Prior knowledge:
About 35% of the residues lie in helices and about 20% in strands. By secondary structure, it is α+β, with helices and mostly antiparallel strands.
Amino acid sequence: MRQPLRYPLRYPWLDLDVDDRSAPVIAVRVDSDGSKGEVPDHSHRKGQLVVSLGGGVTCRVASGLWMVPPHCAVWIPSGMAHSNRATTNARLFFIYIEAELVDLPDRCCTISISPLLRELIVELSDGMQHDGARRERLISVLLGELPRMPLQQLHLPLSTEPRVKRIAAALADNPADRRTLAEWANRVALSESSLARLVVKETGLTFGRWRQQLHLIVAIRELASGASVQQVSADLGYESVTAFITMFKKALGKPPAKYLSSVAQEARSYAPVDQVPHPSKDRRTPMRR
Length: 289
């Protein structure tokens, strides 16, 4: 049974049935209340697109953790249990889509959002009162554009294997934990070589690369929320800012600021910006309740 949606965010639509079969696509705007919080595990029949136009969101499913930086979205397939955690400055839109209507993968993925898609999403979420014909046209363009968007590699594989799951939970609670593979092996009563093989088997990554991917996801989330590179570096336990920037650049090809800028630029390249009105010009008023 689908759990009721309860969020530490402001929702004008708490009574909305997102699985309403008469509405093939539902778009809603979510305003942060200025505090961090996590939406508990839930699922729905429609697939869900979690869109960030400001701040960041991490989406957790059984098989992994997915990052949604600004100008990106994560696709959560139909029926998949998931939880969402938003940064304090998040500006989010949730799009619920009947799965058979859109050509998106049957797995989670993070995708860039073009200015054209951004404006379609904002318009659909602010325009529940649109006449049927116009709304159908907007939805048709949205469904046609979504499969064209580029994917972003912002995924941390997770596992249900008890020992790997225990390590993942500990690292998520304290990303600065620098215990070695041998120390973790001792904690979960395995030899170092056995734990190394187990992590690769369960996640597809070596232990070092797996922990680094967690650091990258946490770093992007916190940088998107406004934290400084110095603060993030310290929170992740790096000995110096230079060491953190070097890791980030080696993994993603660019230092932190340029990476976040490039994600936005990549999304902009999929539609002429001068043909799309900027949302700040006429979208600052809160949604009517």
